[in-house]
Amino acid sequence: MSDTSGLLKEPWQRLSRQRDAGQFGIWVFLASEVLFFGALMLTYTVCRVEHMEAFAAAARETNIWYGTINTAILLTSSLTMAVASQAAASGEPFRRLILWCLLATAALGLAFLVVKGFEYKEDIEKHLVPDAHFALKQVGAQLFYGLYWLVTGVHAVHLTIGIILVLRLAFLGSLGELQLRENPELEVTGLYWHLVDIVWIFLYPLIYLPGRS
Amino acid sequence: MTARDAKPSLTAWSLWRRNGGIWAALMLLLAASLTFAYIPMGLLTSVVGIVIAVIKASLVVLLFMELFRSKTLVHLAALSGIVFLAALFALTLADVLTRLRSG
Asked: What digits encode the pLDDT tens for the residues A108-157?
């Protein structure tokens, strides 16, 4: 067994208790996030039911390649995050593997934001921002893009927070300031990361796939 | 030699193999949802997109987030999110969909 005494924090007397509490806490938070993003997706659903044709036409204007590549990037980042988290939880001496997986996760997150940046640039050039010069004439198309900017924007903020949290672990871990092995913080960060991925899994068919057939 | 020593220790390869399989399944599902989006099936096209998203999310939740191995308390916390989300959708759509039908 490795020494985990440095990981124990107040008020817990055992690391297993601390791990359970951390896990429960983050799942309660994730449940609240599900409701936050769920409410936005419900708004989308209600608007789409009222403006079926306009939503299909608006979604057709999104760049499906940026969307698909970004989905693949985020799914891959979940793989590296899962390996990092499970390697840490196993208690085996996987320090290098954990560090590299954390760095890969953060790099993939950054790659997502870069691709999203190019996509936003193209959207702005195509006048897909709801304003007086909006490109589409159908009633309801502005609603789609209003929600598009809001939801993808909030998602990007979540992802940015995730990247900072993962980089923090990698940075402190590489300096030796933070013990990565059996550290519950890795698990909690990983769970948050996966939720950000799941939100995107649902945004992909809502934003990019309608109106293609 | 104790039973613990006899147990083969976890290797990096076994971690990659286990999670890599899930990743491959997620990629195949992504390709499937992209393909189905171009097949004209009316309303069913959207339904297929959502169903595939639910399957992908389930894989991530159960296997990457290891929910199936978690304790009951964690199951309840996760379930509470789903239950309230279902209530939110059910009650809102019960209103909106019937209003639109009646014009």
From this structure: 999 999 999 999 999 999 999 999 999 999 999 999 999 999 999 999 99
**Calpha distance A136→A126 (Å, rounded):** 10
Is the Cβ pair A76, B20 closer than 8 Å? no
CB contact under 8 A, A201 and B20: no
Question: Residue type for A21, please?
Answer: A
Residue A105, CA atoms < 13 Å, CB-side half-sphere: 35
CB < 8 Å to B46, chain A:
205, 209-210
Residue with tokens 């698990």: A187
Note whether ipTM > 0.90 here: yes
Q: What gap in Å lies between CA A185 and CA A178, rounded to an integer? A: 10
Residue burial A170-208, b: 16+ Cβ < 10 Å; e: rest: beebeeeebbbbbbbbbbbbbbbbbbbbbbbbbbbbbbb
pLDDT at A14 over 50: yes
Residue of B nearest to A31 (CA): B81
Distance between CA atoms of A89 and B100, rounded to whole angstroms?
52
User: CB distance A35–B84 less than 8 Å?
Assistant: yes
